[in-house]
Amino acid sequence: MGNQVDYFVIKAKENGVNVIGLTRGKDTRFHHSEKLDKGEVMIAQFTEHTSAVKIRGKAEIITPFGTVETDE
């Protein structure tokens, strides 16, 4: 198998958590958006098109580097 890809997990702690993917390149732009409800989980990864992810709402983010929760 080639390169190992690190995934991260976003678990919504309330309804209406927004997960927004941001592009790579000269101009950083929104390119994808998902809405999660309480208890829903999204498994994501960074790609050649996605350089950052913005999370709006109460959520738990689990990464290879540790777990983080958004503030209220």
Classification by helices and strands? mainly beta
Q: Which value, in Å, is the CA radius of gyration?
A: 13 Å
The major pleated sheet works out as: 4 strands, antiparallel
CATH superfamily: TRAP-like
InterPro entries: MtrB, Trp_RNA-bd_attenuator-like_dom, Trp_RNA-bd_attenuator_dom
Pfam families: TrpBP (PF02081)
Protein name: Transcription attenuation protein MtrB
Keywords: RNA-binding, Transcription, Transcription regulation
What does this structure look like?
InterPro entries: MtrB, Trp_RNA-bd_attenuator-like_dom, Trp_RNA-bd_attenuator_dom. GO terms for molecular function: RNA binding. Residues 4-71 form the Tryptophan RNA-binding attenuator protein domain. This protein has 72 residues and is mainly β. It has one domain: Immunoglobulin-like. It is 0% helix and 57% strand. The chain is built from no helices and 7 strands. The protein is globular, with a radius of gyration of 13 Å. The mean pLDDT is 88.
Characteristic key phrases:
Immunoglobulin-like; 72 residues; 57% strand; mainly beta; MtrB; 4-stranded antiparallel beta sheet; Trp_RNA-bd_attenuator_dom; transcription regulation; 7 strands; single chain; Trp_RNA-bd_attenuator-like_dom
Q: What is the fold's blueprint, element by element?
A:
Elements: E1 7-12, E2 17-23, E3 30-36, E4 41-45, E5 50-56, E6 59-63, E7 66-69
Antiparallel strand pairs: 1-4, 1-6, 2-3, 2-5, 6-7
